[in-house]
Each structure stands twice: as C-alpha cells, then as structure tokens.
Amino acid sequence: MAEETIAFQTSEKNGWTLLSVRGRLDRLTAQEAGEQAERVFAATQKFAVDMSGLEYLSSAGIRILLRLTKQATAEGKEFALVGAAGMVKVVLAESRMDMFVKIYASADELP
Amino acid sequence: MSGKMNIERRIFLLMLFTGLACFAAFETVSFFGLYDAQEHALESGREMGTSAAAFAEEIADEQAKKRFALMAEEKARGVSNELWRLQEDANLLAKTMTQILTHRELYQPRELPLGGEDPIRSKEPYLFFIPALRESGGIEDVLPEARIAANAADNLALWAQSYDDGHEMTCFYASERGYIVSADVMAEGKEFVEFFDEWYSPSFDPRERPWYQEIKETGKSVFTGVYVGVEGYPCISCVAPYYDASGFAGMAGISNSIATLYRQISINTIGDKGVNFILNEKGEVILSSEKDGPLAASATPEDFRKYGEMSLALEAACMTKGLSDVARITMGGREYYLAYAPIPDIGWSYGTLIERDVVVQPARDAKSYLLTRAEDFSASLRSFFWDNLMRTAVLLLVLLAVLFFVSRKISDRFVRPILALTAGVREISGGNLDKKLDVRTGDEIETLADSFNQMTDELKSYIDNLAKTTAEKERIETELSVAARIQAGILPKEFPARSEFDLFASMQPAKEVGGDFYDFYFLDERRLMVTVADVTDKGMPAALFMVACKTLLKDCALLLGTAERLPEIVAQTNDRLVESNDEGMFVTVFAGVLDVESGEFVYVNAGHNPPLVHKNGTVGFLPMAKSPMLGVMGGMNFPVERLTLASGDMLFLYTDGVTEAMNEKKELFGEKRLQETLAEQPKERTAAEILAAVRGAVEKHANGAEPSDDVTMLGLVYKGI
Q1: Alpha-carbon gap, residue B604 to B567, rounded angstroms
Q2: Is B243 contained in some domain?
C-alpha cells in the first residue's frame, strides 16, 4: 500500500541533497517517509525535500517535516522545502511551515 | 481394524511369505537335487555292480582257463612220468634178456619153479609154458633156452620188488618160443601166485596179442590198453621187444596196477565236480575219475570223436591230435570247461571237464555281493535321503517358528513408532501443543515425527503470536477506547442557551482516535471563547497532548481573561507545550473570542485550516493562518485578527477530518464541497442543523468509507442583542 502511494528519489542540486517525494504523504506513508528522509539527512549538511511530485500532505506529513526541522536546528544543518504546489502548498501555508523552515518554489532557487 | 490389513500385518505377512517362498525354493531345489543324486547313485550302484560282476566273471573265466590249462599240463606230465617209468623198466628188462640170449655162453642153465605146478610166492620168479606148447609137447625143445633165459629171473624179482606198492603187478618175459619167465607181486594178504583160468586156456598165447605183433614189427616198446586186473584194479602194461642172435625173440613187459595213476586222476583240484579222464589215440576213454556216465571208462569204449555232442566230439578230435587247450563245450544243455593236454610219447591226452557254473560261481557270488552292496548303498542312500528330508522338514518347522516370531517382532518394532506417532499426534490434536514426539528410528518415520514437531512448534508459535497480536490489538483498542473516552469526556456537551448566539459543536472520533478537540467557555459575561484544535498524531499520546493543550489554553485564557490578551494566551500555551513536548507533537489551534454584544470576533489562527464564515449571503474562508502551530518552537508571537459578525452571520470551525474525508476512490471531500454545503443552508437553520447537514454531506461523499481522522466541527450563529 505504502509502496503504491509514495516513492523516493535522491539527487544533488547546488550542493544540496535533494529528496524527491512522489505520491501521498499521509499517516500511512509518514513513517516510511520519515525514515527515508532521516537516512538521507544523516549523510548530508544541506538537505531539501522536493515536494513537486507530492499530491497530498496531511498533518502527519507536517509532523515529519517539523521533526526534520527541529533536527536540522539541533545539528546545525540546513533544511529546506522546495517545489510545493497545489494542495500541498496550501497545507504548508495553512500550517505556517514558512515560520520554521525555508521554502522555495523550486529546486533551482536553492542558494 | 481387525478385518483390515494394517501395516503391521502386511509387513508380518510379507516377511512370512518371503521367508516361506525362500524356504520352499530352497527345499524344492535341495529335494530334487538330493532325489536326483539318490537316483543317480542307485543307477550307478546297479551299473557298477553289474559291470563289476561281469568283469569278475570275465576274470574268473580267464583265471580258470589259465589254471585249467596249467593243471591239465601238469596232470598230463604226471601221467606221462608214471607211464615213462613203466616204459623205461620194460625197455631195461628187454635189454637184459637180449644180453643174456645173445651171450648164452656166459650163463649157466638155471632151474626155476614151474608155474601152475609149484607153489609160487609173491616176487618169486617162475617159469611157465603156454598151453599150446604144453599140449604139443615141445617143452623139452625150449627148455635149454628157457633155463638160460631164467638167468634174468633175479632181475625180474628185483623189479618186482621195486614195484611192490601193495597192489598186484607182473614183470615178465614172453618168448617167441612159448615160454614165459615171470615174477609177480601179489596183493596184500595173498601169498601165492594164483594161476587163473586164462593162463590155462588153450587159446592163451601172448604172441597173439596185438601189441606183441606191434612191437615185433616196430621194434619199439608199447603200452597195452587199460584192463581190469585180478584184484579188480585197472591195470596197464608196457611191453618191449628183445632179441637173440637170430632176431626177434620175445617181449619183456611190466603189467602194473594203475591205482596210483587212478588216484592221481581222481584227485580233483576243483572240488568234486570235475571229471578227469585220459583219452587214447583212438578217441576212447581209457581212464576216468567217473565210474558212470558218458566219460567213464568202459569195457566197450566208444570213439568220442564221433560223440553226439558236437563240441565235445570236436575237442576230442583235437585231443587225439596231441593239442592242448581249455575249451568251453556244451553237454546236456550245460556249459563245461574242457581242459586238455597231451601225454607225450604215448599219444594219449589228459582231459578235465568242469562245469562252468562251479568256476564262475565266485564271480557270480562277487556279482551278487556287489549287487547286494549296491542295493545296501541305495537303501542307505534312500534312508539318508528320507532322513535328510525329515531333518530338513523339522528344521523348516523350527525356522518357520523362528521366522514367525522374528517377523512378529520386526513388524511390531516397525509399527511401534507409527503407533507412538499416532498416539502423539492424537495428543497434540487433543490440544497439548507442548507434546513432543520422540521417535528415534533414523528413518522416514523419524522425519515425519520431526515434521510433526516442527509443525506443532510453528502452530504453537502461531497461536502465541495470535494471542500476542490479539492482546496487542485489545490493548490498542482499550487504549483507543480510553483515548476516545478522555476525548469525549473532556469536551463540553452542554451548549450555552443564549439569545445572542447559537452554538453547536461535534466531534466524531475516527476508529483510531485522533487529537481533535473543540472548546467553548465564557471569559466573562460578554466574551465567549471558542476553540478548534487538531493534534498532529493519533491514539493515546495525541489524546493526552490534546488534553494538555486544551487545559493549558483554557487555564491561560481564564487566567488572562481578555480578548486583547489572546496572543499572550496562545503564546503561553505554546511555550508550555514546547517545554513538555518530548514526543515531538504539534497542534494546530484556531482560537477566537466573540463579544456577544458587539459581534466583534478576535482570533488567532495557529497553523489551523482557515474557518468559513457565512456573511452577507456568501460563504468564504477566513484568511490563511498567520501563526505557526503550537508545540514546535517556543517564544513565538501569535498576532490576532479581527472580524465583526452581524446578526445572522455564521462561523464554521472545523478540522481537516471534514475536508479530507475520503471516499473509496480516495477523493477528498474538499473545501469547495464544504463551502457549497454551507452555502446551501437556509438562514433560519440552527447551528446543530447545519452541522448535521455537513456531516450528512461528508458521509454521503465517503459513501461508507471509514473516516481516517476525527471529524470535528463547531458552528456559531451570531444573532446579536
């Protein structure tokens, strides 16, 4: 079920390690996504989640993102969200994620 | 069970029948082998007996022939020796007389007793004149010569002496001129010579005897035929010619009993069965050991060369020709050996006739002995065979018994693990999963038992797991129900009955309870605080976090007490939540304070989805949140926003359980549908009715799909004073 609804891909962009998440990030996929993200995050200083392929983001997904944010703050790493669109962008806005984490419209905008 | 072929019985019968088949095969082979051997041995025994007997008979024949030939030769030589002496003596007597008569001047006339007139004692020489001479009165003419010839009388007496063996004999000179000088040996008990009738018969004249004529012509000594002497003994004479100055003068002779010879003939080397005989040159039997019968010597002998039995006649012819042989002849339908050898110088033949049966009897005995032995051997072999058969039968019975018990034992041993297995499996199926099958046979049954054990282990572990899972599930369900009760219990159920506004709220927990809550309370007489929040987690932690959040918020609100200090209320709550938020939980909060008199609504949206407001006939969303959710970071500011409600306006607060309610196709209910649903509501509807309508729309959309999140709504219809 989880495999069907979410997929991950890692790439490099402007010295950032980019984790592209496709599908739905909800309660069902949150744990897997969290583990995947933490694994990638542990090996890099600059970590960004590309959300351009994400269709749905629930509060469980928000929670993952907040946890990563707190981790970045604690470890002195850089963390950013890129490519959020549509419903995902709305959810990010509604939950005011911009107050905790840097959000860019696309990966190209990463410093 | 008893009627069926169980494995034990099958194995048992298999072993039994295999064993039986082996025994039967072995028995059959050995029986026929032994039987053949026995038959062969019997046949061989018989053949051996027969051939050995035939061989023995053959050998016996050959041996007999050799023996008979030797014997015949020996006997012939013996006879010859006996007769030879007689002949030699006759010749010596003749020579003596020839000497005297040719040298008469050397001898004085000598007086001798006259036979027939003087009593003549045994071995006393005497003078005798033949009857014809006495009748003619010519005695005086021959007397001078006779008295000269009488000088040989001492010689005669001497010879007679030498022949004295208790039988009668005579040494004599028979003169051509008619006188006889003789010395006789009388048989025992006889003192005087008896002059029997023949001597006085007018016809008696030795010169007329055929042998006298013969020696006169041939000048050689000759044997007379055998005749019966005075005593009744057979006698034979040998006569030899003697001469004077003018030629043939008479014959000298010795007549002797052939008792010795007869005895010699009569002694049989082959028991009593044989017949010994002497055949003369004319084919006549002159001497025989047999008194009667065809081979007895007879006064009227017949020529055997003309005998009725051809085989005997032929052999008789050979005998007269001086041949020697051992022939088989048939007489009167019986088989005989005829062994014969010539008696040299005389022209006679010595023969021995022996019945063949006597000769081959030992061979026949041997044959019958051998056959008996062969029969004995066969009998013992047969007995051995049957004994062996009996022994084998007994052994077979014993082996059968052993086989029976061993088969029983083995099949039992074979089946025991199966029975143990069956019993164990029964026990396991009876519910004892701790039962371990202990089968150590090292074969498939052990493998089966191990498989059973493994299966039981897996079953047990499965059941344990199931139990654990069930317990866990129960625990979770208990937890959820506790959470749900906490959630439900903490939410206010009594809505204030005020004319200024109409408030209704509902929280429909999802199966796995979330952390939604709503709240409302008066800060003072005019100000109503309403809150809708959503904890970003589910289950018990979320419920507890929700409780904490709700309590903190209410505490702060009641403590600070005014709408103007709403940012402080939220900020303090946030700081407090961050302090104790080890779980990393967050909560989105929409909190607002309504002045029921003025309709002014002051609110803080901390990361919550914007509520809807029904105002001036349209339904619209409030602006997006300007503050972040609570529990993430301390020291944040939460600026307030303001809204003024007119009478009839309605605020609709909700959590994303409403907009994110999904149907089977994973389609969200969405803000648009919510907005439309609210817009459709007539003005006079109460908050409760509106919420029921929204819930109906959401349920309709979900179309039976289970809600994944709590569905929390709060409706506030402002009526004013």
Answers
A1: 7
A2: yes
Is the same domain home to B542 and B688?
yes
| pLDDT band for position B133 (cuts 50, 70, 90) | confident
Does the beta carbon of B585 lie under 8 angstroms from any beta carbon of chain A?
A: yes
Task: Assess contact for B178 and B167: CB atoms under 8 A.
Answer: no
Note whether B306 and B320 are within 8 A (CB): no
Question: Residue B206 belongs to what domain range?
Answer: 99-257
Same domain, B461 and B497: no
A63 CB within 8 Å of a chain B CB? yes
HSE, CB side, 13 Å, CA atoms: give it for residue B661: 31
* Residue B633 touches partner A, C-beta closer than 8 Å: yes
| Token pair listed for B321 | 């020709």
- Interface contacts A/B by beta carbons within 8 Å: 58
Q: How far away is chain A from the Cα of B636, in angstroms, using its nearest Cα? A: 9
Cβ–Cβ gap B660/A58 under 8 Å: yes
By C-alpha distance, the chain A residue nearest B709 is A27
Range of the domain at A24: 2-109
ipTM: 0.80
- The reply to whether A60 touches chain B by the CB within 8 Å rule is yes
Quickly count: other Cβ atoms within 10 Å of residue B360's Cβ. 22
- Whether B640 maps to a domain, the answer reads yes
Identify the CATH number of the domain in which residue A91 sits: 3.30.750.24
CATH of the domain at B239: 3.30.450.20
Q: Which residues pair with B672 in a beta bridge?
A: none
Looking at residue B165, its pLDDT comes to 74
Could you give the CA distance from residue B631 to residue B613 in angstroms, rounded to a whole number? 27
Give the separation between CA A111 and CA B218, rounded to whole angstroms. Answer: 187
Chain B residue numbers with beta carbons less than 8 Å from the beta carbon of A66 are 536, 584, 586, 629, 632
Q: Does residue B537 lie within any of the structural domains? A: yes
From chain A, the residues in CB contact with B586 under 8 A are 62-63, 66
pLDDT bracket for residue B198 (50, 70, 90): low
From residue B564, alpha-carbon distances to B439, B520, B606 in Å are: 85, 17, 16
Helix or strand holding residue B472 (H, E): helix B444-490
